[in-house]
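Methods — Computational structure assignment.
A single polypeptide chain was analysed. Its primary sequence is given first, followed by the predicted tertiary structure written as structure tokens.
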Amino acid sequence: MKMSIERFPRALQPLLRFFHVDFEPPQPPSTAEWVLASLVSIIGSLVADMILVAIGTRVFPSVKNYGHFHFSDYSKLTIIGVVIACIGWPIIARISSRPRWLFYRTAIVVTVVLLIPDVYIWHQGQPTKGVIVLMCMHLAIALVTYNALVHIAPTHRHRRRTRQTSLQ
């Protein structure tokens, strides 16, 4: 049975239309493309983190031993966040006629939300320079992950032919 926004409460339908959640998707990325994009997202994000920590500790030597700059600390959170984003991409690709449009806006909102803990730890007394580097890490992870997913595992304009269509 095909999903339709008409199955949702009438009050919610304009919001779904605005965000292009219309269950009229293009062909979603293949599993192989998605797996490759996910691996690139994870590895690329970890490399970006390492580069930013290296730059941050050179530019701001006072944060050289900052606890959040240990690979074991940031790698776990990076991997968890990237895996969640990677799971989100094929879901969005299956519910929206404009998946890149929706995923881009979702990535921005999620990134802004993920900056809140950085602001909180800064407010609690963590070093400003260290928190700035953490914020840059969040932005880099978002850029790497978004671009890897939409470019390596793109949706395709042509819908797959269904068995019924191919038999006609």
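Note: The two ends are 20 Å apart (CA to CA).
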